[in-house]
Amino acid sequence: MPLKTAHSSKKCLLSHCLFAILRTAAIIKQCAVFAALALFSFNANASPYQTISDEFKQQFHQHLKANKVPGGAFVIVEDDQILKLSTYGKRHKNSKLNINSDTVFRLASVSKTFAATLTSQLVQEHKLHWHQPITQYLPKFSLAKPAQSQKITLEHIIGQSTGLMPNSYDNMIDANVKLNKIIPKFSKLTPMCSPGICYGYQNVAFSFIQPAIEQQTGQSYAALLEQRIFSPLNMHTASVGFDAFKQQTNRAEPHIKTRTGFKQVEVNPNYYQLAPAAGVNASIKDMTKWLMANLGNQPNVISPAVLEDITTPGVRTRKELRRREWKHYLKDAHYGKGWRIYDFEGHPLIYHAGWVAGFVTEIAYSPTLKLGMVMLMNGESRAISTLGAHFWHSVFEQKDHLAVESSNKKQ
Fold it and tell me: What percent of the chain has pLDDT over 70?
């Protein structure tokens, strides 16, 4: 009896083991099926612009290498997803420090997109009004005919439609003259046209928005950006100003182009005194968050009303239609509020570029495709414009191709 019982127990144990093995095999097979389905589902839902994004990485690296640009970074996003993020080169020439996704660059005139958003937020909250004259907040500002200065409003300031000669007194900023000494110089100017009629790109006058913001809120411009934009969007390395940039240990250094190639230079603080026009610093990781917010994914930070406000076309910018790398694609161009509004081969494109000694930047997005791209470089190069124009041409060519395919399937 004991031997028989032991034998039966062994048979039972073997049966359980065999069952467990078969069950495990079935589970593994089932998991494999689920994995295959998941992979199929992922591929089925893959972005139609993924291939373009993957190819852009190679183009970006090739162009920077060919043009001997020290370093750069880019990101392409669709809605709230990153399609491709890549970095290239060094923080400064001949160094061993690679640029990574947290390396901070100067944004130059892309800073204007932040200023416009902040101002529009305050307008939506009725703390500012677009039709307020700038002289209400900057009484020292006057033109050759004082009555003309009274007609320039906050909307004209942010919309680049003051009527003033383009880049008024930028030469004095280049010469490191302080803003408080430049403002009285405007009393010598006669406008080209009435406010709101013609386009005249400004840096000095654009920054007149800062005293309006600060006087109305009782807070500094930098503190407000941190409170209302940087912190809510978790833009941890974003900052305003020269000191903030220099305090970053992981920062890209500027390089200017010379006959013998790129030369590293010291960070020029001059344009930092124009914080709304050119004072923001950020990494490509931070700019990913800024781009996604402008695609409508952070309505608690940038509301739909603000997005509509700042991207509504204002004054026409005909000069943009002659841009060397973009002229074959642009059908029309306007300035909104801190953003350029392009008709790119029949498609709306929201855009801004920036340049300041040693840095170039570009940001653009398609509101219809919810697709956007940012590029940052620490060397002055037209490669950024060539890359941007080609990328958006490829994107909209793909969109039109997909639309034709869809139409043919329905027929």
Answer: 89
